Amino acid sequence: MPSAVRARSFDKAAALYGASRPGYPEALYDAVEELAGRGLAGARVADVGAGTGIATGAMRARGAEVLAVEPGDGMAAEFRLAHPDIPIVRGDGDRLPLADGGFDLVTFAQSWHWTHPGRSVPEARRVLRPGGALALWWNDLDGAVPWIAEQDARIRELFSATGATFRGLPEGLDFTTREVRWSRRIPLEAHLANHASHSAFLLLGEPGTRAFMDAERERLSPLFPDGTVEEGYVVSLAVAIADAAGRAAAGGS
């Protein structure tokens, strides 16, 4: 299934996405600052594929001057409700509606895999100032936790015949990388709603998603008899620094 179709599936479920998706720990933004070589306070940041503004709002709270870039109608509308004081423009990582060399940091929080690197890499290079940084990250449930690994296997099996893909780190760029582990305690129903907000389930449709979540509820309820799930996460962060020519330079790994 074309990635554009999957990416736009969020528009009809933007409110669910905004209510159910986890945020990011402060340690992630500490790591972004460290690897980018500058603080977020006062930085000019383009948050691409901003969605409902989960990362955008957090970077704004740390003093960044953030501009959101979002292609989807529904997601942009939800963003404006949640963050009326943060500017947002319509576009995507392959076609950034931004001026050359205008940003200290370009971020893709859970959104790089919706781009075509042959276009999005040159675009990120174009809008970065010399010495600016490109930062990508993904927030994944921690597969080292047995119940999470078992659930992930069931999800992969469910979508193995549908053409759904699971992202990997981008190729062709040399990043400095960091993993940040964190956890949260949430109601079981919130855990299931988080899964339901992912594109594969949105495209599966309500009957199939409901059947899978009902089965998961039956499996997980004995593990969490008080109805509270302990979710472990790993945020995978990758940062590259732009050189004097505006190109993403190698940062080690």
What does this structure look like?
- It is a single chain.
- This protein is of the alpha/beta class and 253 residues long.
- The chain has a domain at 3-141 and 168-185 and 232-249: Vaccinia Virus protein VP39 (Rossmann fold, 3-Layer(aba) Sandwich).
- 38% of the residues lie in helices and 25% in strands.
- The protein has ten helices and eight strands.
- It has helices spanning 3-8, 14-20, 26-36, 54-61, 73-82, 117-127, 146-159, 188-196, 199-204, 206-220, and strands at residues 44-48, 65-70, 88-90, 103-109, 128-141, 176-187, 228-242, 248-249.
- Strands 1, 2, 3, 4, 5, 6, 7 and 8 form an eight-stranded mixed β-sheet that branches.
- Strand 7 and strand 8 (248-249) form a beta hairpin.
- Helix 2 (14-20) crosses helix 8 and helix 8 runs antiparallel to helix 10 (206-220).
- The longest helix is centred in the last third of the chain and has 15 residues, at 206-220.
- The chain is globular and about 55 Å long.
Keyphrases for this structure?
253 residues, alpha/beta, Rossmann fold, eight-stranded mixed beta sheet, globular
In short:
This protein has 253 residues and is of the alpha/beta class.
